Task: structure prediction
Amino acid sequence: MSSSDLENRIRRVTSDLREETTIPGQVGSPRPVEQRMAETSTPAVSVGVIDDFEVAWTRGFGTLAAGAAPATAHTPFQCGSISKPVFALAVMKLAETGTIDLDADVNEYLTSWRVPANDGWQPRLSLRQLLSHTAGTTVHGFPGYPASGPWPTVPDVLRGAAPANSQPIVVDVLPGTQFRYSGGGTTIAQQTIVDVTGKPFPDIMRELVLDPVGMTDSSYQQPAPPAFINRVARSHPWNGTETSGGYHIYPEMAAAGLWSSAADLARLGADVMRALRGKPSKLGLASETVSSMLRPQLPNQEVGQDFVGLGWFCAGKEETFRFFHDGWNHGYVASMLMLPAIGKGVVVMVDSHQGWMLRGEITAAVAREYGWPALKDVPEISDIAPDIAYAGSYGSANETIRVTQDGKRLLVTFPPQQPLPLYPGMGGEFFATAINLRLRFAGVDPARPSELTIVTGSKTETFTRAD
Result:
């Protein structure tokens, strides 16, 4: 592709940000990235795009802070929880060499701290469980610490001891039975690897992942290394106001401590996808090892559902299968999404909480330009089944609703609201376009449903035919 053709593609992406709504299929009118940044008080954005298993382009927008130097594709941002899957890659390299066993009890490795017993019961946790958030550990995430300090050690964080600002990390759910996101569990895994190798955590990550892949704009060092001091995008939580000291400090490095650029994360994402296909990769992981990271870790999960593998969130199947992770630190948000079946992906980094929606808007613009398959379930209107008696009254303990048929749609009345039109989608489901609402009919007699289930927002309710 010529440079002019590439620039045209970049221009089309960066001028086509459409504000998302909560109503399926409805978005705002196209606007350029600079306008959306101004509207969301976001000083800096950086983007990396992967196409055909290679980094297609990278670009920075805005400035590191008000009146500061321009942001570029090589500007380091705090990655938040994207730190976790990058850390998981290092753990897998140690597993490949036999340095650690993913299924061993981590208390066999820990020396500076141990998973505590509860009322005399000693839980057994594995690195596999910790990386997949199935270990039953507490503490969802971490707020970070002011740049002025004081900063706790990792054992302080694990114990919840001053000056740590989070609770002690304990096991309060039976390990291996369910998913529950836990940055606390990732911090246990961090200390496990440190105790096994006897090396500082930033050095481990540089040796195993960052240097092999050529991620020169990346570091797990907290605070940022001296070479980064004048280069990083600074934290702006709300209204464009810079955080005192520039950013928060995260001793919980595996969970939230990675500094990286859109260019570096795009390079890493492309390399992981190549490794998955058995192609030469700088990371040096076997295809089967990468594949094992992208499999369900609980017996009731399967590919095609949303699940967490080892470090990565996963969704979809076949060409829509994707592995991804979002990040959210104090004043930073980021996203990293890869489609390994078709070798496409995108990284978006933002230095503002107020600009969190820019991640999805930029990702959607990239998807339109590069012909990605639809990743969101936007309903398609189909013909209503003519031989099914949908119409009638349906009641629950709280209310009765009325369903009537109006040509190729249904009208559902929720008193005291006006009738709401719903349209037939695929698989027998009906959906509204006015609000976020879906319904599905069921019953023994397929020609005359006896109940319907309505999902709106986070609420699900079943109604039984009353006539």
Notes: The chain has a mean pLDDT of 94.
